[in-house]
Amino acid sequence: MKFNKKWLIGLALALVVILVVLLCVCCSMQEKTPENTQPSSTTTVPTTQTTAPTETTVPPTTQAPTQPQSEYYNPFTGEVLAEPMTARPFLISINNSKSAMPLCGLNDVDMVFEMLVNGRSTRCLALVTNVKAVNKIGPIRSLRFNFIDLTQAYNGIVVYASGSQVVLSDLKTSGIDNINALGGNNGGAFYRDQDRLNSGYAREHTLFTVPELMAQYAQKRGYSVVTDEYVDYGFRFAQDGTPENGETANTITMSFFTGNKQTTMKYDPATERYQFHQYGADQIDGNTGDPLTFRNVFTLFAVNEDVGQYHVAQLLGSGDGYYACGGKIIPIKWYHETETEPFTFTLADGTPLVQSIGNSYVGIIPTGSAFTYG
Q1: Residue 339 pLDDT more than 70?
Q2: Calpha distance 324→293 (Å, rounded)
Q3: What was the pLDDT predicted at 210?
Q4: Residue 173 burial by CB count (10 A; 0-12/13-18/19+): exposed, middle or buried?
Q5: Average pLDDT over every residue of 19-30
Q6: How far is 167 from 155, CA to CA, in rounded Å?
Q7: CATH number of 72-373
Q8: Domain ranges in the chain?
Q9: What CA–CA distance (Å, rounded) separates 246 from 112?
């Protein structure tokens, strides 16, 4: 069969046109495929949805609590507890005159403060949280100005045996919860020690308290004896807080004014504790007869002013001091910016002080007083 040449050329051109059209249609369909899938990929991770969930789904445990979530501890001693400590501290005015020895119950409290109060006399303030751990504490004496300051700093309840009108007026102005051990019917929480009376002690050296009954009496007075969990009182702890680069301090002697009353702390390597020594004798806890000892020893220097017959340490602001543990001592700084904030302690370079787990003695001595160690 014979084909017309022009007809064949026309047929070929027509096929080429058809193929070109088909290719264009296919390319157009392929270009639309990404446009249909693009919206689903951009809506899964928009900027506004990646930041909002972060703000609402952070677990509470990431908000840096003031104590570990895995264990509970006493914020004044660092000792590990089986449950959160919610006990509000009691701060008890303790007679520290020579004729009142021995002191009772101080081995079982969290902290003991000693300071010059009037004349050449010092007085102690015992801070206790576990009232069930102490059979009796005392002898209790009258209130002093700085005891009000320290009670405010730790949101505590101050316990005392009356006081002068000027001090009681300051107490009333402060508004802090307080218990006067001589304030009438107290449910047997406070009593005169008959053995001491029979032994010839002066009456002012015979007043004691049963701490558990004291706490019950506080509740009857309408005072809360609990506080929030994880209260941060400014102390940081380690199992062993012995200063790494500290100087030797097997004996520490602090004067509560040059030439006046002295307290000496003597380190015992066998027990890793300092024994309280004053009035020429090693002191004991009158409840047990055991040596009166402390794991941590603080010495704080503070400017003293005379208010009438009283010496009053200026505890607002900051000052210098020393911290001793394990037979070593280092200089520190103390800070107490407002009346209702606790004290904080740092090393000389501003690093937070880390102390050993255990009880503490804090001697607050007038700036310029004699202080030695070695």
Answers
A1: yes
A2: 13
A3: 96
A4: exposed
A5: 39
A6: 19
A7: 3.50.90.10
A8: 72-373
A9: 23
